[in-house]
Write a structure and sequence with these properties.
Helices cover 65% and strands 0% of the residues. With 389 residues, it is mainly alpha-helical.
Length: 389
């Protein structure tokens, strides 16, 4: 989350190294910004088995768990849609500015999805209900009155980052509900998603420039992909890869001593790295195109980072991360706070001096901004403002 806020803030500065940015469409390049989102999907996948098994341990039914998955997905989709519409600009015909839209949006998100403290009285319960209803009404008003820079109305567009997270979460969480920790099912599904990515991604020019599987449209296969919102399979593959790593860790970690455990993780990461190197001969590495090379490289990276953090925690170094801990305990709050910060800056005309938005100091600027957003999320949590879906 810290790195995600950091790379999302790079738009506000200048003269930054290219390796920190997103690669352009068709560019055979992997920037820092291209690694954050898939790593987040992987980490989200790692949490899925623990979250679902915890529900079963509490005696909750499979039906209630499916309902919980669907409600969380709906929340992510709705938030993603509202955010992505704001990225299309704002027409003066809307009656309010883009910063006002985003401030109202963030406020409504908090009202609807805040984790309110336990209600000790009827009046408090009524207050929480009124806040949720007010948030829903604000979102409805924003959706009805919104007009983008070209006069277009509110729509799903491309769902946004939160929406993509929602679709991947739903698919992989439902897969786990029906397979549980049975690797004989989970691994073949991951392989199927990887094959989908391999066959559906355009190859490089030297290899013909077309996908291995190019079916005339419309066809059942592409329609099914649209219904399930799998894309070419890369995004749910990241999430399911995290699910599999958690299952492997929970099942076999206690059977292996520390050195052999790390060797096993290194072997998995190395195998995926080799797969990435081989696939790089036929596909570029591209986040925008969601190529197999991107899938294999980032999955290898995510597993390696997991191993590094695991070792640090085992050696008692977890306190190193305490400065950014709120990003892990109030993740969704941390993600939306920057939208309010940018909006307040726009309303009050806050402008940083040029010397702080160019070169090396611009990177310091983004680091400071990322830390500030995380600490603000912590402060909000202290007054019981914390998004929970």
């Amino acid at each position: 989350m810290f790195v995600m806020i950091f790379v999302n803030d790079l738009w506000s500065v200048n003269d930054i190294p290219h390796w920190m940015e997103h690669a352009g469409r068709g560019e055979d390049f992997l920037g820092l910004a291209d690694t954050v989102f898939p790593c987040f999907l992987f980490v989200m996948g790692m949490s899925v088995p623990f979250a679902i098994e915890r529900r079963y341990a509490k005696g909750l039914s499979g039906e209630s768990t499916v309902g919980h998955i669907l409600s969380r997905t709906l929340a992510l989709l709705l938030m993603g849609v509202f955010i992505v519409n704001s990225e299309a600009g704002m027409s003066s015909g809307s009656g309010y500015s883009l910063p006002v839209y985003r401030l109202l949006m963030v406020g409504a998100f908090i009202c609807v999805w805040n984790r309110y403290p336990a209600a000790g009285s009827v009046n408090r319960r009524r207050l929480y209900l009124l806040l949720k209803l007010a948030g829903i009404l604000v979102l409805l008003c924003l959706a009805v009155t919104f007009r983008d820079a070209r006069g277009g109305v509110f729509g799903a567009r491309w769902w946004g980052i939160l929406g993509l997270i929602g679709w991947s979460y739903m698919l992989c969480a439902l897969i786990y509900v029906f397979t549980r920790d049975r690797l004989k099912y989970l691994i073949p599904v991951w392989i199927a998603l990887a094959v989908m990515c391999i066959t559906g991604s355009d190859m490089n020019e030297a290899s013909g420039g077309e996908a291995l599987l190019s079916l005339p449209r419309p066809n059942f296969y592409s329609e099914l992909q649209g219904i399930l919102h799998t894309g070419n399979g890369a995004l749910p593959a990241f999430t399911l890869g995290g699910v599999i790593l958690s299952v492997l860790s929970a099942r076999y970690a206690h059977l292996l001593p520390g050195r052999k455990k790390l060797m096993a993780v290194a072997a998995m990461s190395g195998a995926l790295l080799i797969a990435g190197i081989i696939s790089h001969r036929f596909w570029i590495v591209s986040k925008l195109s969601e190529t197999p090379t991107w899938l294999f490289y980032i999955t290898a990276l995510a597993i390696a980072l997991y191993a590094i953090i695991y070792v640090l925690v085992e050696k008692g170094k977890a306190r190193w991360f305490s400065v950014i801990k709120p990003a892990g305990t109030a993740t969704l709050t941390t993600y939306i706070i920057p939208y309010a910060a940018y909006s307040l800056g726009g309303i009050f005309g806050v402008r940083l001096p040029d010397w702080f938005t160019h070169g090396t100091l611009s990177i310091v600027n983004c680091i400071c901004f990322s830390l500030a957003m995380i600490w603000i999320a912590w402060l909000l949590g202290r007054i019981h403002i914390k998004l929970k879906i």
